[in-house]
């Protein structure tokens, strides 16, 4: 026996010096914007941990954030600007100096601008600086600008903003502390990542709430749900409408909430065949009318009006009008929405739907909560208490990426409005700067573009009616992506997924320069990858490319790099300044406004530049207004950090809201403060302004909140934000389609606009189903998810994360596999009307039996990301994108719509229908289609063995070890639940830091 | 052969892992890897990191699998697994050189790299498969319970917990002294019915797992009063409202 006790205590050094320095910044491994502490040693990252004070992540950090070291250490990092020397797609480049690269880019952009600025299509990807890039596009003068929202979440954003004045994810969150019944619809793991996990942990630990997950797949969050509802993809709207049917039949609705805070009582003109049909009845000054129980019609502004929600009334014009509520109720009371009627389509038993409706009603009404917080509404009426109906909902990609996603999301919001749960205690809460009026302003700019002239407004906005569409006199689209046209009228985020096709086809216009940033449109961000590659490489008869010039900015050697003519290499997120702004997509929570910055925590070790600095530089080279002084000098010579501090969007309002004013005391408004960034850094790189309890709920009607919102510049007026169960905006488009008004759709689009611009939420089968059900033989649904350790991140070359997932099988139900004779590990063909792809099968039980699924964006092209050619990402990983059409099948006249939602243009990549069959045994082994390897840029050689950290081990310090501390996950909730667990100390207790600081 | 401490350590530091709320996100595994990359057992070597078969040293790994139960239906379980710092640690007693040892002061099981000869006997002896062999260094590595973090005065107090614990987004991981029945973690284990993994192996693991809770509000069984339609027909509902709300 060896006596292991000898000299044992000296073996393990318990107090090594960890790092030279710790710097705070904001994570960018996905879109959540968590606060991080980066421990640095010898200008290398020793360790990244969550910032415990940060409002988004409260100290936790996910797998992606923790793998930031390997993102920084990636051998796929670009090193210098690249100029294409081979053919597009070959990946042959020559390294050039920045001066040459910028002169070249500026020359191309200058020529396009002098001709017609709309010849530039500028589309950024998962860009967190859209208020900056959108402004750049405006000053340049092109309407052809958007980011990646068109294939991500525009259905959620638009449906929310046109219904409740806010939206899921970025602009709202469930009231995790008080909710009793939480429903999550569809794949939602990726939006947002840590806050939902933190919330679910708290909610489940409280043990007084139920978590229902409505998702075809029982993985991730669904695996810890109290109830998993394995719905058939694309039918969530029907499920929700059946719940509404049940609640209406049982009168389990919040009458007062509907009357006070929504347009349920507003009278809707019923005059079929007339120009006013379906519009709100208004008095002579334009104020909507409501009816009283005595049948009197009063303007909404009349304080004495206690409106009713039903009945039929005769207007002074002689026309009939009924409250919007009655139209809504009549629709969903129809037997077509009864649980029995939707059970087969949704794959959910009628008794389950009925039970869930009963549970929602019970939580909302029998478990009503009351907070002793007096507040005053917008009209000055004091309320002694805040009533809460503790039912909350969250939805994201699984709803969004269907061609019926806008209406389905609107149906979820309608359900929440009916039971009075929007922004009440226990419900779904708004995050500032929302709520805003439905829809928020402004409308999209770009009716006209003129040589060398800025646009008259921001290119993206929210149409209020046909008059705001960007169409020519014949009703044809003006934007390259056809956003804001009669085909996709409410395309508030643009249609990035249509740009490459349309630029290639010259439909509706030819462009000169395609400029993209941080979006892998040549691979996993494209629907129909094979044809996208063709569009990027196709030539005219004269030998020139159909898309004449393609500039791309990326930090890594992605698939898209290979197609660019000019590559502008970006930095990593640890090497740059950024601002996460209230003008854009801030870090606010329901109880506080917030914004944040990134600061460079590492010095650059290669010749790359932050994208935003490059855009400022190009702005100067092009002499764009706002970028140069009168004598042509740079207005922001210090780059993006300079812009963050000194740019003003309106007087005293700039990208950052914190520490404004000469003394740094201004919040929201104030003069520029040269020391502003120092103040952010001293505070951990974020700013937060907490609301008072009085301001925290009912924000849409809360005087104190609304006044604050006006002061902060979020709202123009302190008036209420009225939620819309009935959308007059939608009806205006429908009326146009029926021939009313000056702005008319082309005849071939009348039917489409009339059908889909229903003022009430509508369910229709996803477009792919429509074709399939005609008998094309694709019986299965196919969807994707991102694995939690990779979702919404753009670098799965990460050496650590790829050890967890480097290949993606096709998951299918054991019963389906049995029927098809497929065993675990067999190779199978997955066919769609568009093509076929080969993958390995993985059997499971927790999946809707008619649905197959896989992890998204794991498959990589050979030669990309500096991975070896035999990397499993290339040989066994595959993209479902290969078999998703970016266009729908041709109509009778040959025209092909984008495979998108007809209201918003959201890419409908979850509509996919497929058939599967086992491969012949000689087809086993590798995925197909297989693309030729792309050439690699001049990158560092990837190591065969990675010993990261070997030189970072801490030196022994002379300091004595200190006592260890206990840590209880969800301490507050556990302490409330179980005796013996101390509240108020340890971690994850909200007031921990407050106490320590006192 | 190496002996365990003569007097079993009074202090038994370990982890409590809540299987009710673990979503299988791998945050704990990756944050562990990054801390330990420059930590006590640095580096956490990765072989073929950008090639066909990337494999590396991980002290913590997450397994997600489905469990079928005819009565209660199926469920998906996410199961993080790392060294359980056993009281009767077979990986220590099997060690021929004394490299594997259990600390007297807190019960943490460690490997002294200077004495490890890479014979892998410990990985054969561990019934949990919690040992990690570093092919490149030729020595065995394992979870240190962040021994270089939890007592470290060079870190702020909130960082002085194992990396997997402070980073866990759902709060599924707790850390403390399981030898003290009054400690918060012991109370949590007692109140939630925490259990030993594979007790039949008689290793007396320190780490505990908390089982999934019963499904809240009945899960898939009726738990709220059924909704009663106010009238039989849909048209009747609106007519009833007209009667109810309109006085004229």
Describe it.
The complex is a heterodimer of chains A (998) and B (248). Chain A has 998 residues and is α/β, with parallel strands linked by helices. Helices cover 25% and strands 15% of the residues of chain A. In chain A, the strands form ten sheets. Chain A has a seven-stranded mixed sheet, with helices on both faces. In chain A, strand 18 and strand 19 form a beta hairpin. In chain A, helix 3 crosses helix 16 (611-621), helix 4 runs parallel beside helix 16 (611-621) and helix 14 packs across helix 15. Chain A is globular and about 80 Å long. The model of chain A is unreliable at 4-9 and 992-998 (pLDDT under 50). With 248 residues, chain B is α+β, with helices and mostly antiparallel strands. Chain B is 19% helix and 19% strand. Chain B is elongated and about 90 Å long. The mean pLDDT of chain B is 94. The interface between A and B is large, with 146 and 130 residues. Strand 35 (945-946) of chain A pairs antiparallel with strand 2 of chain B, so a sheet runs across the interface.
Layout of strands and helices, then pairs:
The complex is a heterodimer of chains A (998) and B (248).
Chain A: E1 21-26, E2 35-41, E3 44-50, H1 63-66, H2 68-72, E4 82-84, E5 93-95, H3 98-115, E6 120-124, H4 130-140, E7 145-146, H5 154-161, E8 172-174, E9 181-185, H6 193-206, E10 210-214, E11 227-229, H7 236-249, H8 255-261, E12 267-270, E13 289-291, E14 297-299, E15 313-314, E16 320-323, H9 324-333, H10 339-346, H11 350-366, E17 369-371, E18 375-376, E19 382-383, E20 386-388, E21 391-395, H12 397-400, H13 405-418, E22 428-430, H14 496-505, E23 513-517, H15 529-537, E24 549-554, E25 566-569, E26 578-580, E27 592-598, H16 611-621, H17 640-646, H18 676-682, E28 686-690, H19 703-712, H20 728-737, H21 747-756, H22 767-776, E29 780-785, H23 801-804, E30 810-813, H24 814-820, E31 827-832, E32 835-844, E33 851-855, H25 872-875, E34 913-918, E35 945-946, H26 971-977, H27 992-997
Parallel strand pairs in A: 6-7, 6-23, 9-10, 9-21, 10-11, 23-24, 24-25, 29-33, 30-32
Antiparallel strand pairs in A: 1-2, 2-3, 4-5, 4-25, 8-22, 12-16, 13-14, 15-16, 17-20, 18-19, 26-27, 27-28, 29-34, 31-32, 31-34
Helix pairs in contact in A: 3-16, 4-16, 5-13, 6-26, 7-10, 7-11, 7-13, 10-11, 14-15, 20-21
Chain B: E1 13-18, H1 27-37, E2 46-47, E3 55-56, E4 60-67, E5 75-82, H2 90-93, E6 100-102, E7 109-111, H3 121-125, E8 132-134, E9 139-141, H4 163-167, E10 173-177, H5 184-192, E11 208-210, H6 234-245
Parallel strand pairs in B: 1-11
Antiparallel strand pairs in B: 1-10, 2-3, 4-5, 6-7, 8-9
């Amino acid at each position: 026996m060896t006596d292991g006790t000898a000299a044992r205590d000296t073996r393990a050094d318990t107090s090594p010096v960890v790092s030279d320095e710790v710097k705070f910044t904001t994570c960018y491994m996905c879109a959540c914007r968590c606060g991080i502490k980066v421990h640095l040693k010898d200008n290398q990252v020793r360790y990244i941990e969550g910032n415990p004070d940060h409002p988004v992540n409260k100290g936790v950090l996910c797998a992606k954030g923790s793998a930031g070291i390997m993102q920084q250490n990636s051998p796929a990092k670009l090193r210098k600007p690249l100029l294409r020397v081979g053919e597009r797609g070959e990946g042959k480049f020559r390294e050039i100096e920045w001066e040459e690269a910028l002169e070249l880019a500026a020359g191309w952009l200058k020529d396009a601008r002098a001709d017609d600025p709309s010849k530039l299509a500028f589309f950024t990807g998962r860009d967190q600086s859209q208020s900056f890039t959108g402004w750049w596009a405006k000053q340049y003068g092109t309407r052809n600008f958007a980011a990646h929202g068109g294939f991500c979440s525009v259905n959620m954003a638009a449906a929310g903003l046109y219904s409740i004045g806010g939206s899921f994810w970025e602009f709202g969150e469930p009231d995790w502390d008080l909710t009793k019944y939480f429903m999550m619809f569809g794949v939602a793991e990726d939006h947002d990542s840590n806050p939902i996990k933190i919330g679910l942990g708290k909610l489940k630990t409280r043990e007084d709430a139920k978590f229902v997950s409505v998702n075809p797949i029982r993985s991730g969050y669904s695996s810890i749900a109290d109830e998993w509802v394995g719905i058939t993809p694309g039918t969530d709207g029907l499920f929700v409408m059946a719940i509404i049917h049940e609640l209406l039949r049982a009168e389990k609705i919040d009458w007062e909430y509907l009357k006070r805070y929504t347009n349920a009582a507003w009278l809707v003109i019923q005059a079929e065949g007339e120009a006013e049909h379906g519009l709100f009845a208004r008095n002579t000054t334009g104020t909507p009318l409501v009816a009283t129980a005595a049948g009197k019609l009063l303007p909404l502004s009349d304080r004495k009006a206690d409106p009713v929600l039903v009945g039929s009334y005769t207007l002074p014009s002689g026309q009939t009008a009924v409250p919007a509520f009655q139209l809504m109720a009549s629709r969903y009371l129809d037997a077509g929405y009864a649980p029995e009627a939707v059970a087969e389509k949704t794959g959910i038993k009628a008794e389950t739907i009925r039970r869930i409706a009963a549970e929602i009603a019970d939580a909302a009404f029998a478990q009503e909560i009351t907070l002793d917080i007096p507040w005053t509404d917008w009209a000055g009426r004091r309320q002694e208490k805040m009533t809460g109906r503790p039912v909350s909902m969250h939805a994201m990609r699984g709803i969004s990426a269907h061609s019926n996603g806008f209406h389905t999301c609107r149906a979820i919001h309608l359900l929440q409005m009916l039971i009075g749960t929007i922004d009440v205690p226990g419900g779904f809460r708004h995050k500032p700067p929302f709520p805003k009026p439905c829809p928020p302003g402004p409308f999209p700019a770009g009716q006209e573009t003129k040589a060398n002239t800025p646009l008259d407004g921001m290119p993206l906005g929210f149409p209020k009616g046909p008059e705001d569409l960007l169409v020519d006199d014949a009703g044809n689209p003006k934007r390259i992506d056809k956003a804001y046209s009669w085909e996709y009228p409410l395309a508030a985020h643009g249609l990035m997924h249509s740009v490459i096709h349309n630029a290639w086809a010259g439909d509706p216009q030819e462009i000169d320069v395609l400029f993209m940033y941080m979006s892998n449109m040549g691979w996993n961000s494209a629907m129909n990858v094979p044809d996208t590659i063709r569009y990027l490489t196709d030539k005219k008869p004269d030998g020139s490319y159909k898309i004449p010039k393609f500039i791309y900015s990326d930090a890594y050697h992605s698939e898209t790099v290979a197609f660019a003519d000019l590559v502008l290499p970006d930095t990593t997120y640890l090497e740059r300044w950024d601002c996460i702004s209230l003008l854009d997509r801030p870090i606010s929570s329901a109880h506080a406004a917030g914004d944040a910055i990134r600061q460079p925590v590492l010095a650059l070790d290669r010749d790359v530049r932050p994208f935003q600095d490059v855009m400022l530089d190009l702005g100067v080279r092009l002499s764009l207004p706002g970028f140069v002084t009168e004598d042509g000098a740079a207005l922001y010579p210090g780059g993006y950090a300079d812009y963050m501090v000194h740019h003003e969007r309106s007087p005293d309002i700039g990208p950052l809201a914190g520490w404004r004013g000469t003394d740094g005391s201004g919040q929201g408004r104030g003069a520029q403060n040269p020391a502003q960034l120092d103040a952010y850094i001293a505070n951990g790189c974020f700013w937060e302004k907490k609301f008072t309890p009085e301001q925290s709920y009912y924000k849409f009607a809360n005087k104190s909140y609304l006044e604050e919102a006006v002061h902060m510049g979020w709202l123009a007026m302190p008036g209420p934000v009225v939620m819309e169960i009935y959308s007059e905006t939608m009806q205006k488009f429908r009326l146009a389609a029926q021939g009313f008004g000056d702005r008319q759709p082309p005849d071939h689009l009348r039917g489409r606009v009339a059908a889909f611009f229903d003022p009430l939420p509508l369910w229709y089968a996803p477009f792919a189903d429509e074709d399939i059900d005609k008998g094309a033989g694709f019986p299965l649904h196919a969807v994707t998810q991102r694995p939690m350790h990779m979702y919404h991140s753009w670098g799965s070359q990460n050496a650590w994360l790829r050890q967890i997932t480097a290949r993606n099988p096709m998951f299918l139900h054991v019963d389906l596999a049995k029927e098809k004779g497929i065993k675990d590990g067999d190779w199978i063909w997955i066919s769609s009307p568009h093509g076929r792809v080969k993958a390995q099968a993985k059997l499971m039980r927790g999946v809707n039996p008619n649905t197959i699924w896989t992890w998204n964006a794991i498959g990589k092209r050979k030669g990309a990301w500096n991975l070896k050619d035999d990397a499993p990402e290339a040989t066994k990983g595959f993209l479902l994108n290969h078999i998703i059409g970016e266009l729908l099948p041709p109509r009778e006249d040959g025209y092909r719509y984008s495979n998108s939602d007809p209201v918003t243009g959201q890419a409908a990549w979850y509509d996919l229908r497929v058939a599967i069959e086992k491969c012949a045994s000689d087809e086993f082994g590798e995925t197909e289609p297989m693309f030729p390897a792309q050439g690699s840029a001049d990158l560092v050689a990837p190591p065969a063995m990675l010993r990261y950290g070997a030189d970072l081990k801490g030196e022994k310090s002379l300091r004595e070890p200190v006592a260890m501390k206990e840590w209880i996950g969800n301490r507050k909730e556990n302490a409330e639940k179980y005796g013996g667990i101390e509240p108020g100390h340890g971690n994850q207790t909200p007031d921990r830091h407050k106490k320590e600081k006192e | 052969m190496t002996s365990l401490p003569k007097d079993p350590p009074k202090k038994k530091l370990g982890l409590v892992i809540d299987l009710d709320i673990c979503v299988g996100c791998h945050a704990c595994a990756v944050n562990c890897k990054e801390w330990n990359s420059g930590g006590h057992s640095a580096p956490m070597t990765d072989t073929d990191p950008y090639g066909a078969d990337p494999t590396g040293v991980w002290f913590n790994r997450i397994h997600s699998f489905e469990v079928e139960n005819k009565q209660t239906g199926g469920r998906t379980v996410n199961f993080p697994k790392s060294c359980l710092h056993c009281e009767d640690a077979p990986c220590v007693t099997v060690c021929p050189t004394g490299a594997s040892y259990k600390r007297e002061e807190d019960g943490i099981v460690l490997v002294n790299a200077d004495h490890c000869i890479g014979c892998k006997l410990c990985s054969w002896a561990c019934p949990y498969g919690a040992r990690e062999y570093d092919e490149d260094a030729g020595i065995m590595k394992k979870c240190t319970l962040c021994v270089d973090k939890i007592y470290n005065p060079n870190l702020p107090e909130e960082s002085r917990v194992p990396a997997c614990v402070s980073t866990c987004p759902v709060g599924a991981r707790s850390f403390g002294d399981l030898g003290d029945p009054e400690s918060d973690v012991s109370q949590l284990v007692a109140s939630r019915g925490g259990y030993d993994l594979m007790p039949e192996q008689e290793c007396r693991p320190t780490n505990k797992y908390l089982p999934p809770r019963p499904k809240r509000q009945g899960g898939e069984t009726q738990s709220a009063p059924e909704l009663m339609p106010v009238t039989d027909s849909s048209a009747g509902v609106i007519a009833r409202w007209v009667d109810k709300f309109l006085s004229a």
